[in-house]
Amino acid sequence: MEHRDDIGAKLGMWVFIFTEILLFGGLFLVYAIMRSSYSTEFHQAAHHLNAFIGTINTVVLLISSATVAMSITAVQKGNNKLAVILLVITLLCAAAFMINKYFEWGHKIHIGLYPGSDLMLTLSHGQVMFFSLYYFMTGLHMFHLVVGGIILTIVLIKVQNGTINEGRYVLLENGGLYWHLVDLIWIFLFPLLYLIT
Amino acid sequence: MTEEKTHHPEPSYLVDTGKYKGLMAWLTSTDHKRIGLMYMYAMMVFFAVGVILGMIMRIELFYPGQQVYGPQAYNGIFTIHGIIMIFTVVIPGLAAVFGNFSMPIMIGAKDVAFPRLNLFSFYLYILGAAIALASQFMGNGPPDTGWTFYAPYSIQTHTNVVAAVFGAFVLGFSSILTGLNFIVTMHRLRAPGMTFFKMPLFPWSLYATAWIQVLATPIVGITLLMIIAERWLRIGFFDPSLGGDPVLYQHLFWIYSHPAVYIMILPAMGVITEIIPTFAQKKIFGYKAIAISSLAIALVGYFVWAHHMYTSGMSTTARWVFSLLTFLVAVPSAIKVFNWVTTMYKGSISVKPPFLFAIGFIFLFMIGGMTGLSLGALATNIHVHDTAYVVAHFHYIVFGGVGFAFFAAIYYWYPKMYGRMYSFKMANWSFVFLFTGFNLLYFPQFIIGIMGMPRRYFDYLPQFTFGHQLSFFGGLLLVIGFIIMLITLFSKKGAKAPDNPWGGRTFEWTIPSPPPLENFDVMPEMGVNEQPYDYK
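YS: structure for the whole thing
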């Protein structure tokens, strides 16, 4: 009697991913317009970002995407134990990313570089726009990372207790798809914010 | 066991069979038919609130100068009237009510693809509407920006904009999830043999609508978040004093809010496309043209947004490009109108209430559409921009169009929903009052708009008095029409409805009225030679 449609579930996830891309699309549009109006100021402001930390975070996220993909293969081959380990690595990567971001944001807020601060009012318009976009875009991305982390934690529990197994793993696949989205958005944020100096 | 079932037909979806009874059985139901009805009841409440607010505005405008309340209250009232009517009534409108109730049955499915997500969308809808309404009573008074929340005023005003904006954001999320659900449903759950080009045209219009919901709503979502961040964190994207650009807000807002007009009108067109062949007992003319024109409207409608902004200081190139695209989007809409009229040609027409409202729809939609073209033309737009002419135009579309299609749909599917008929005589009277009242309310607005009456103004020059007073009496007739309609539908139980009261050919008319919980005893199929509108 149970109705089950894995292709339908994945189709639903893909459609949802389209909406997420368009959500960020609005921000990328604002970025494009602001950068074309204030291109030199954007270059100057980007010097304040630490490309090294950004690179580490990029590598960390790429590794986490790889481990999610591997965990799907592991479940398909019936090796739930390995899948659990791979998912734990993914979540550790997510945590590492968050810690990095905490120090990155913390430092900037400490020296007074945040929207609405007194220091911000002394900067040029273009630089203000850059930092507003920086906080808004990375902030929204972090929110998605946290949501993705929660989804993967639920998936992890289900892989652990065998609800997700080699015959039924669409939830893991969808969780993985969402995680790749989080990764993909960062892949665009990284050069647009850190590498335009 | 199976033999016994054939002797005792399955109980209807209106009978509680789960572990809860009464109200709880409804609130926890994932049945698409019950969710559709719950949307309808909620929408009727919000619509009543919107109508009352509208009448309060008309009372104030009865004479020039201040009558009952002051300008700030007027600003608050037209804002919340817009927010309620747009975000909680016409945008979810037909898709949420009849998309949920009828669409799965029409494609031969037991339910939508994700029934629990469907119920979740409903609760998001209620939550969003509650937040938007709460904005009236919390903080520093009701928002006074208009439903468009234009920056930079929406950033500067001290009224409670954040709550209203957040309510709209939640409502948008609900709309996205409904669209997603419908797309997957129509891809995965069509009856065997029903290819996409054998799907009835109401589902087709919902399919096009769902893609707009999914692809346009996120833009307004992020834009509304930007408004909140502007107010709380001073990010300055739309604040010129920090280097931002207020016109950018208008672009982002209309990138969603113009396609939203098609989210409203496409399902309305779909309903009309069901009703006309049924009451003309004739095969729909130009099936494929109607199906594809829905997609064409969805596609082209995505690229016309800046025709709301001709006076904002855009470049001339941008203006003529958007004007051209606006004229293009009228083509697929006109294709539909021609097809409806041609379907009626030589049909055996029976003028029952749903058909009457469908004809009313075509008449009002044509006036709304034609005046839309004069607004889309650059030169005339400058003259009538932000006047009562615009108010009249979009009310002809969203109320004359979507509203009348909604009434037509209620009269059309009511026997299926409740298994009861209603009094045709009373229904016809409701049409007379609604149609006369509607035209008396909004047509004078075209005229005083051309004469120069601005929209959203609390006060006006004496020469507009007569027009405003006509509108007031039109509003009264409309309210009487609603009351007659409510009495017709809900005051007493009508005669028992047959399975197929109108002689329709789509799947919903092959099952009992009201349908059983799982819709079909035997899952339907479509033969190779069968078509969705096989009338003799």
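YS: worth flagging: Confidence is low (pLDDT under 50) at residues 1-7 of chain B.
IM: good catch. Also Chain B has one domain: 29-510.
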